[in-house]
Task: structure prediction
Amino acid sequence: MPGKRIGTFVQCALLVLAVPAAGRAQTASCNDRETMTELVEQIKQLQQQDHDLLERIKILEAKQPSAGSGTEAASALSTTAPQPAEQIPSQAAPPPSAALRDWHDVHGLQWRGFGEVDYQVLNQRKPELGSGGFVPGSAGNFYTGDFGLFLTSRLTPKARVLSEIIFEEGDAQSYSVDLRRMLLKYDYNDHLKFSFGRYQTNIGYYNWAFRSAAWLQTTADRPLVMQYASEGGLLPTQAIGVSVAGAIPARRLGLHYIAEYGSSDSIRPDINGDGLVNDENNSNQVNIGLFVRPDSAPGLQMGASYYHDKISNFIQGPSLRYGQTIVNSYVVYVQHGIEFLNEGFLIRDAALHFSDVVFNTPAFYSQLSKQIGDIRPFFRYQYVNASSNNSIYNDVGLRLGPSFGARYDLNGYIAFTAQLDHTVRRGEPDLNGLQLQWAFTF
Amino acid sequence: MGVKSMATLLLLGLTMLCFAPRASGQNNDLAVVVNSGNPVTNVSLGDLRRIFAGTKHSWPGGKAIKLVTRGPGCTERIVLLKLLSMSEIEYKEYWTAQIFRGEADAEPFTVPSVGMQKEALNLFPGAISLVKTMDVKPGMKVLKVDGLLPGDAGYPLR
Result:
């Protein structure tokens, strides 16, 4: 009897479980059939599209036999002999996917372009920061800053050429051409990568991360200490020589190294608008650095570098040499739309042989921004303190102050930035400025 | 029908019900797939992040890594962005920056279908991609991530 009861109970339980499922099955069976038919149709359509795309790739490959890295895969996907275009029915040639159409690849030559259009206004007419096309002494004017063309081409699976050509606005809307980077790169593996040619010195993070494209930056301009030497910046930003970089096996630490040896010849205009230009007549420079990107903190990067060179002073003459040492350390966090950059520098200029004078120039900047939709508000504080007796950086002196503003990304190619600056200067009135910038890439 | 067999049936039914959510969870997982000739069997989450961020360029042995991705809006792309903690626009800007820094030749190769993903994986010995578990096809080699396969508890790509 109990067995029979249990049996009945079990039967009821199964019925309870089965009835809804059966009900669902019955009510859904018609819908399911329709859905199945639709899905089969869709699968057929997708298979047809897939087939059409492959046919299209064959045609493209036939038209463009020497595709480069970007279209390399698209071309390589075609495994059979290409067919003439006439043999492909019109409906079998849909517009190729945007992914297959890499406009930045022209016969294996990858190209990119960057540009900017700026308007800057200062609250005083005293000559100041006369670089990048801004006219010193004007209350406000338009300028175009740097217009860059970036070209790369892969020569072998491990070797490629990279070049960055900059059209830089100078005085009276004249333009000069600067081959800012020209490198023959050879990547043996992730641990050993060589670059030969003209490179940007890897002093600090900013130079590596943003190079010379305004579009890549959050702010409208670079921090003064990271400004290019040709635009009044304090650091030697370019050199010709060899650079070796790579990852050091260190499990989850993400340790990397960089070592550079090259000849630089920095020529920097005074930023106080006095019209003087310093030619540093640099010797060969050496720069070594380490940085970590720990797995445990994605987005965090910490690093330090040591740079040494010998330079001369324009006013004192080329025979009087200084040993220049630049120590840098940084902590940056770029993740989840947050950008938090912090870099510190100590530039040490020690007279060689003719005197025992030593000048220490500390500098730092801190920048914080957060992406909120298409807008990225930012705040930056920077500080540079050069001794007034330091004839190399006497035009700089003490400068400190905040900048704040916002960048608005119209799309993935155009950005508009508005920035307000307040600069405190030693022995000079405070300087306020407004910068408006359209930056773009193409 | 005996009581025992009924009880067994009930047990079976309940067991199937218990496994149903697990099967569904497995379907949500994304597999890391590579060319079948790739000797690698396991990849750490950190390395996977480095690979898809384009900062790790070669497999052990020196073979160049070739990234094969799906387009915006696909589940594979959404999980990829989650892995890199980026939005779509940040992802695009990131790759533009990587190219300009000289760290990459071009943006990752984007394909519009699983079929083309499979073909790309077959053609490039160093290719790597993310696919839904249900879309894993013969010829795709599935890598473990931190020792876990899709469907395992704690699998990070879903």
Notes: The first strand of chain B starts at residue 30 and ends at 35.
